[in-house]
């Protein structure tokens, strides 16, 4: 089982030193991956979701969030073996040629260790700030990934679609692997899970309930197989919005609680054919690293 941990990239209390120390310690204790996420801004009056939700206050830590790709480029130079992931980039806030080249550059800098978790985004204010319409997000995402894959392929590259155009051009560097950067879809909705499988992407679902998780994995693999992909070879990395704790927890979400409780849950994850789980850094990243080290020894 592969274990991953989010880096402490948000909040005014974090620092470059804290990020570097967490990355180096994660590699030292034998974790398999470290992760960043993207938050473009935190509206003063609260965030409105696409579809017209009431304004929702965001965590105070979202007022300062280090850019995910620059952060991973920095820790790439401080580590040598651990995988570097995003969970997730809000892909539609970027153009495919710009994001494709940034991801390819980062993949070269880290020696092919990159796992690019991509999502559509959900906050109206971020779409407005980026000058991107919120309509037809699924179609835009699908074409965006197609365009990036073209950028990662042999030169000259080109794309002519409904949303994006890339004139026949030379566009390097290319990712380390011939097939391009490993892409994971941050997907929860059934249509998004189906799209990920159909496109032959990996999957980066959030663990909510066992029923949702197992149903999503099954639907993802079914869609992949129907599209002619080798479903078993497509990566699934489960994201846990919770912590490993020092003591047992009675009322808990799956994959949270004490090391012993999480070990039991990981056995159920493995029975679904999934072998990679990541947790956030928690309120105390040093304590979380200690508990992750114990978890690593226990499985």
From TrEMBL:
Keywords: Flavoprotein, FMN, Monooxygenase, Oxidoreductase. Pfam families: Bac_luciferase (PF00296). It comes from the Bacteria. One of its GO terms (molecular function) is alkanesulfonate monooxygenase activity. GO terms for biological process: alkanesulfonate catabolic process. InterPro entries: Lucif-like_OxRdtase_Rv2161c, Luciferase-like_dom, Luciferase-like_sf, SsuD_RutA_monooxygenase. Residues 13-240 form the Luciferase-like domain. Gene3D superfamilies: Luciferase-like domain. This is Putative F420-dependent oxidoreductase. The lineage of its organism: Bacteria, Bacillati, Actinomycetota, Actinomycetes, Propionibacteriales.
């Amino acid at each position: 089982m592969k274990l991953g941990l989010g880096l402490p990239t948000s909040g005014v209390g974090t620092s470059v030193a804290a990020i570097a120390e967490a990355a180096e310690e994660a590699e030292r204790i034998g974790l398999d991956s470290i992760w960043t996420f993207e938050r473009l801004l935190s509206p003063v009056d609260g965030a409105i979701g696409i579809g017209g939700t009431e304004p929702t206050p965001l965590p105070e830590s979202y007022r300062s969030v280090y850019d995910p790709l620059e952060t991973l480029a920095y820790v790439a130079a401080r580590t040598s073996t651990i995988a570097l992931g995003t969970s997730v980039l809000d892909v539609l806030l970027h153009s495919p040629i710009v994001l494709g080249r940034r991801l390819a550059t980062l993949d070269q800098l880290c020696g092919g260790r990159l796992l690019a978790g991509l999502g559509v985004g959900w906050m109206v204010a971020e779409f407005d700030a980026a000058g991107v319409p919120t309509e037809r997000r699924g179609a835009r995402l699908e074409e965006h990934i197609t365009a990036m894959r073209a950028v990662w392929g042999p030169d000259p590259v080109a794309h002519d679609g409904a949303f994006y155009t890339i004139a026949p051009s030379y566009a390097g560097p290319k990712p380390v692997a011939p097939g391009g950067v490993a892409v994971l879809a941050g997907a929860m909705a059934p249509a998004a899970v189906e799209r990920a499988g159909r496109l032959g992407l990996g999957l980066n679902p959030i663990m909510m309930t066992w029923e949702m998780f197992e149903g999503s994995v099954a639907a993802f693999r079914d869609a992949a197989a129907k599209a002619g992909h080798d479903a078993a070879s497509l990566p699934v990395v489960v994201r846990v919005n919770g912590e490993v704790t020092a003591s047992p927890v009675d009322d808990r979400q799956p994959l949270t609680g004490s090391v012993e409780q999480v070990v039991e849950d990981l056995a159920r994850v493995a029975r679904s054919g999934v072998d990679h789980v990541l947790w956030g850094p928690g309120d105390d990243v040093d304590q979380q690293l200690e508990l992750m080290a114990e978890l690593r020894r226990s499985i």
